[in-house]
Amino acid sequence: MYYTIQPGDSFYLITQKYNIPLNELIRANPQINDPEHISPGQKITIPLSSCSQLPDQYRLPDSYPEIRVTGKNLYYAKLILDDYAGKVSETTAIMQYIHHHMEMETIPSWQEVSDLERGISIVEMLHLEMLGETIIHLGASPCYYDGRQQPWTPQYIAYHNFDPCAQLYADIQSEHEAIHQYQAHIQIIQDPFIQALLIRIIKDEELHIKLFSEKLTKLCGS
User: Could you tell me the pTM of the whole model?
Assistant: First the structure.
């Protein structure tokens, strides 16, 4: 679809409005020489096929901050790599929640929780992408290893095969651990742009704890 630039618009604000990645909007509009300088009245293409169909009930409605950094910093990149693909990371969360989703889907009365696991995993995928873009801006590559270059391994997953109550409990613990790690990194990383991103991600993780905990209480009595 086409969109006419309005006064006060920026590519970033447009991506928030249509829930699409910034790089996809830039790629769809090669006629724009400098995405940071657009004028009212210009027409651009909104790549609807790239729109993120994120389940709104599994994330807060607050917009995500623009992905940027004050400058390249390999030390900060190593810290974010821990959040990206370390033991406590978005990669681990995605893989764990998808595994739990597939098993819960086969258990009578657990379909709703299976959907919850899948929906939250999709939000974690967005977190993963934003962290990966941050790592690139910091001057490193978003490879699937932590800040010490230890490769991500499926041994990080709390499987609890076909024990949905144990799986829910493990998911809640994983979210708490992620928040704790993000908070520690916020204290170390003296970059307001990265701090804003991590603070926003934490808000989603807190919502996930609430949603998981409600299901745990309802179905497992604890």
Answer: 0.79
* Distance in angstroms (rounded) separating the CA atoms of residues 12 and 68: 11
Residues 6 or more apart whose Cβ sits within 8 Å of residue 189: 76, 79, 195, 198
Residue 188's CB: how many other CB atoms inside 10 A? Answer: 10
The helix/strand/coil state of 61 is coil
Q: Which residue has the tokens 């144990």?
A: 166
Residue 63 phi/psi, 5° resolution? -70, 155
Which domains are assigned to the chain?
2-50 (3.10.350.10), 56-220 (1.20.1260.10)
**Which residues touch 59 (CB under 8 Å, ≥6 apart)?**
123, 126, 204, 207
Q: What is the pLDDT of residues 21-35, one digit of tens each?
A: 888 899 899 999 999
Q: Which helix (H) or strand (E) holds 213?
A: helix 192-220
Per DSSP bridges, beta strands 2-4 and 43-45 are: antiparallel
